[in-house]
From TrEMBL:
One of its GO terms (molecular function) is iron ion binding. Keywords: Dioxygenase, Oxidoreductase. This is Ectoine hydroxylase-related dioxygenase, phytanoyl-CoA dioxygenase (PhyH) family. The keyword Oxidoreductase applies. The keyword Oxidoreductase applies. Pfam families: PhyH. It comes from Ancylobacter rudongensis. InterPro entries: Phytyl_CoA_dOase-like.
Length: 288
């Protein structure tokens, strides 16, 4: 399939570095959109070990799966051959990138569950996500970012990370809390609580864009982000790949995620503080 990536100039990369997120219009042609959509359809019919249904009591459906490319050929092709790697390499200013993760999100009409405000910090170092819209997604349903939050020099954790036992969380919040990992912070001020952005939106500079199929968002993993449910009259599907460079390492609290992967039969051998390596994280050199 052809590579649809148009040149990403230095000014755009500087905007990404400053704001933490950018929108690229038409970066993925219809063939990539259709391929990812078919992969998601097949994945829902054939869930992987890490498949999640985040809205069991909701009138809508909110699904996701992780590392599905291992058994869904369409997602494998998208992850390894689409413009994603080239976009990531250009934005991370490196000739080679490692595919950290493939994932996707599906919200049907009526889904009330929102993706909570969070950032991705199980890996430390250069780390970006590429979020591709597969359906028209107006701003009111799109992923949102707190502009510049990746530059606050803070590692954020959900409230329950600090509070221990508490009332059961909604499924999606429980998932994000669990995948932040476990780490003894009793004698450390390493982490900060995720602020109540939703309750005080007026205090934050929030970025979002109207999206058409094939548009993509590129954002630094430590940019705080979240998204609402789906009040539209059509599905909203997003295909996501996450990328690191050769210097990114597993964070101390990332051991929990590695243990979960091993328990589910994934071939992964990562050490805390060590660079991301192994067959699950292939290296691509799209810029030569």
């Amino acid at each position: 399939m052809p590579n649809d990536t148009s040149p990403i100039d230095e000014a755009l990369i500087e905007t990404l570095d400053r704001d933490g997120a950018i929108c690229l219009r038409g970066a993925f042609g219809p063939e990539w959109v259709d391929l990812a959509a078919e992969g998601i359809r097949r994945n829902i019919e054939s869930p992987g070990a890490l498949f999640q249904s985040f809205s069991p009591n909701d009138k809508g459906a909110f699904y996701s799966d992780i590392w599905s490319r291992r058994h869904i050929p369409e997602l494998e092709t998208f992850a390894l051959e689409s413009p994603s790697a080239a976009i990531a390499a250009r934005c991370l200013r490196t000739p080679a990138v490692r595919l950290l993760q493939d994932t996707w999100f599906y919200k049907s009409p009526g889904t009330q569950a929102r993706t909570p405000w969070h950032h991705d910090n199980v890996v430390l170092g250069p780390f970006c996500s590429i979020w591709v819209a597969l359906d028209p997604i107006p701003r009111e349903a799109a992923l949102e970012f707190v502009r510049g939050s990746h530059r606050w020099n803070k590692l954020f954790m959900p409230a329950n990370f600090f509070e221990g036992e508490q009332e059961a969380l909604p499924a999606v919040e429980e998932f994000y809390a669990r995948y932040h990992g476990e780490f003894d912070i009793s004698a450390s001020d390493t982490f900060s609580r995720v602020p109540d952005i939703q309750g005080h939106r007026e205090e934050y500079d929030i970025l979002s864009w109207d999206m058409e199929p094939g548009d993509c968002l590129v954002f630094h993993a430590r940019t705080l982000h979240g998204s609402p449910g789906n009040t539209l009259d059509h599905d909203t599907r997003r295909m996501v790949t996450r990328w690191v460079d050769e210097t990114a390492v597993l964070a101390p609290h990332g051991r929990t995620v590695v243990d979960r992967l091993v328990a589910e039969g994934f071939e992964v051998d990562l050490a805390v503080g060590a660079p991301i390596r192994g067959n699950l994280f292939p290296v691509l050199s799209p810029l030569g």
